[in-house]
Amino acid sequence: MRVVVLRLGHRPERDKRITTHVGLVARAFGAEEMLLTGRDPSVEESLEDVRERWGGGFRLTADVSWRGEALRWKEAGGKVVHLTMYGSKLAEVIDDIRSCEALMVVVGAEKVPAEMYDLADWNVAVGSQPHSEVAALSVFLDRLFRGEELERDFPGGLKIVPSARGKRVIVPEDRLEK
To answer: Which listed residue, 11, 12, 64, 130, has the most CB atoms within 10 A of its CB?
Structure first.
């Protein structure tokens, strides 16, 4: 399944860390791209640095029109999931969502325009209490991929070897200092 995350309403003066974390979660939990409304060089640099050091093909496309991207996505046959506190229970819709071939996952920052609720194929609530969009995205993607995303390999980058004690990192040969 192809998954992209649309970060809607990024406010550079307030949201640098949260939007960066949305991108980190998107990458680590199985999305191939994050679309960002607006531009924020610090977010772009941070995510590019992670991709370069840790590998994989994750992309960030900045300064997109949320409406235009959602409409194009749907016209191409993709489905849109909007993560919100005011949606259907995740457990009740996740099986239907898993049947999609291409999925755009929308997470908001500021007040989400009412039109987004109408454009979405699913408005999905991850829990019934206030929490962050980072938490919602991570839980949603983990449920979507049934935890398999945690075993993904990111070619070309550093790799952490799980260990009860200590830190073990494998550095690709082409990155070893000579």
So the answer is: 64
The separation between CA 141 and the C-alpha centre of its own chain, rounded to angstroms, equals: 8
| Residue 138 in domain | yes
Q: What is the pLDDT of residue 177?
A: 66
Cα dihedral: 1, 30, 43, 15 (round 10): 90
pTM: 0.94
* Helices 90-98 & 133-145 angle (0-180, nearest 10): 50
Report the alpha-carbon distance of residue 23 to residue 121 in Å, rounded.
22
Domain that holds residue 27: 2-153
- pLDDT reading at 107 higher than 80: yes
| Nearest-angstrom CA–CA distance, 70 and 90 | 21
* Residue 92 falls inside a structural domain: yes
- pLDDT classification of 72: cutoffs 50, 70, 90: very high
Paired strand residues for 107: 7, 83
Q: Would 65 be classed as within a structural domain?
A: yes
